[in-house]
């Protein structure tokens, strides 16, 4: 696989600093039941990296110490970690809202038949990947049969109340472009998703999040292989919107890898870009957050950060609402 980090220091991304910490995003491990083309963590069935019990036990302590109200669990498939349910219970006991970044098909796998019921019982917000409302496009990006299993999982979640008005169970979908383009306008695409999924499959959901593909890891390597990396970076830089800098997710979020080390965001984590002021040999760890605050600290940036500020902006919660409405596609 092609390394992209050496290609991401050719331009000067604006300096930004951290605000109050409101979200802790934790990668529980790279094991996943799928292998998706756009996956920036290179997750898959053969990955062995999983968070230890000792590091898992630190998470509720950090949530309480830092006064964090949102725990965002990701992977791989975070549900495949043996400690997933206990961690969710511990966070909810603290009154912390939990997000499960779910690939949907995991809910259909043997051994996970009760996972959807557990998520509903704990009032976990489900953020689910569904790159299109047409089966051919989804299966092309995520593998044969994925769309059918995804629809079955969405129907299961709907039956439990997810996405239903007044249920309090939030179901949000995630769209990633299939190629080196910016996402279309989020509200218009959401309306198309809601219409097609309701009419064709009887599926309902709350919101659609459009997220820009980052020029790193598996997607970045694909761009290099096809000779599209330079053009894609030019697209991101050309569509940079200065207003998005005030609302990028790294200002209020910290990302934790499966070893318990802390980064400014999930993308920096995958690139190995440590918190400013730290050496690679002394990376910030979850245990450090029991004593330290990062409010006002500088955030490490590089050219991939243009992926968060291009067009309508991009974050783990989709387009940045304060950004311009349009997103250019070429």
Give a description of the structure:
This protein is of the alpha/beta class and 330 residues long. The protein has a single domain, classed as TIM Barrel. It has ten helices and eight strands. The protein has an eight-stranded mixed beta sheet. The chain is globular, with a radius of gyration of 19 Å. The two termini are 26 Å apart. The relative contact order is 0.18. The C terminus is likely disordered.
In CATH, the architecture is: Alpha-Beta Barrel
Low-confidence spans: 322-330
Helix/strand/pairing class, anyone? Answer: alpha/beta
Give the overall pLDDT as a whole number.
Answer: 90
How helix-rich are the residues, as a percent range? 25-40%
The fold-level CATH name is TIM Barrel
Large-scale geometry:
globular
The radius of gyration over CA amounts to 19 Å
In CATH, what is the class?
Answer: Alpha Beta
State the strand order across the main sheet: 6-5-4-3-2-1-7-8
Give the DSSP E fraction (strand runs of 2 or more residues): 5-15%
Number of domains: 1
Keywords summarizing the entry:
about 325 residues, alpha/beta, TIM Barrel, eight-stranded mixed β-sheet, 10 helices, 8 strands, disordered C terminus
List strands and helices in order, with pairings.
Elements: E1 23-27, H1 53-66, E2 70-74, H2 84-93, E3 97-102, H3 115-121, E4 125-129, H4 135-142, H5 146-159, E5 171-175, H6 186-201, E6 207-210, H7 217-225, H8 229-238, E7 253-256, E8 262-263, H9 266-271, H10 306-309
Parallel strand pairs: 1-2, 1-7, 2-3, 3-4, 4-5, 5-6
Antiparallel strand pairs: 7-8
């Amino acid at each position: 696989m092609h390394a992209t980090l050496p290609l991401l220091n050719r331009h000067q991304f604006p300096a930004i600093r951290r605000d109050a910490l409101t979200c802790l995003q934790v990668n529980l491990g790279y094991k996943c039941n799928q292998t998706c083309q756009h996956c920036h963590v290179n997750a898959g069935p053969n990955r062995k990296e999983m968070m230890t019990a000792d590091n898992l036990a630190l998470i509720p302590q950090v949530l309480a110490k830092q006064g964090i109200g949102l725990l965002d669990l990701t992977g791989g498939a975070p549900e495949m970690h043996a400690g997933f349910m206990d961690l969710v219970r511990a966070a909810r006991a603290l009154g912390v809202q939990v997000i499960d970044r779910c690939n949907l098909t995991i809910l259909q796998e043997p051994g996970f038949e009760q996972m959807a019921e557990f998520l509903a019982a704990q009032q976990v917000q489900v953020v689910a990947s569904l790159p299109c409302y047409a089966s051919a496009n989804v299966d092309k990006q995520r593998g044969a049969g994925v769309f059918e299993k995804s629809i079955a999982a969405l129907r299961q979640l709907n039956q439990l109340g997810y996405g239903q008005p007044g249920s309090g169970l939030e179901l949000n979908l995630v769209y990633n472009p299939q190629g080196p383009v910016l996402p279309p306008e989020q509200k218009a695409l959401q309306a198309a998703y809601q219409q097609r999924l309701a009419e064709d499959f009887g599926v309902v959901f709350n919101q659609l999040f459009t997220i820009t593909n980052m020029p790193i890891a598996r997607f970045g390597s694909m761009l290099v292989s096809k000779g599209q990396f330079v053009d894609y970076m030019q697209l991101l830089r050309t569509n940079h919107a200065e207003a998005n800098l005030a609302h990028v997710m790294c200002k209020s979020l910290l990302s934790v890898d499966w070893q318990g080390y802390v980064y400014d965001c999930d993308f920096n984590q995958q690139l190995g870009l440590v918190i400013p002021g730290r050496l690679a040999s002394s990376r910030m760890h979850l245990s450090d957050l029991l004593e330290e605050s990062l409010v006002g600290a500088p955030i490490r940036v590089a050219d991939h950060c243009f992926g968060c500020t291009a067009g309508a902006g991009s974050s783990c919660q989709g387009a940045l609402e304060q950004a311009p409405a349009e997103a250019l596609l070429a």
